[in-house]
Amino acid sequence: xxxxxxxxxxxxxxxxxxxxxxxxxxxxxxxxxxxxxxxxxxxxxxxxxxxxxxxxxxxxxxxxxxxxxxxxxxxxxxxxxxxxxxxxxxxxxxxxxxxxxxxxxxxxxxx
Length: 111
Prior knowledge:
The protein has one domain: Winged helix-like DNA-binding domain superfamily/Winged helix DNA-binding domain (Arc Repressor Mutant, subunit A). The chain is built from five helices and three strands. The protein is mainly α. Helix 2 crosses helix 3. The two termini are about 30 Å apart.
């Protein structure tokens, strides 16, 4: 659920389809993730007033309150994962991952 929470921390209240795109997921996997977030009390679906077919996903107060703890956990994991790499190696790793993501994004946009 972490990628979905992070996407909602960046932009709350987005349509479910937009949330899915932001985490590079589609269809049933997005529905399942949002269902899990709802069951955990971390998100809620709200029908768009202008288009009742659209469900906007909003964080709950519980999810907002968890953000500092989640960010600390992510920071701790990243620190442990990268502790044996030099600054140069970390920069190279980030550069490679960014190129991979850009390539995947380009693949998704192509028909």
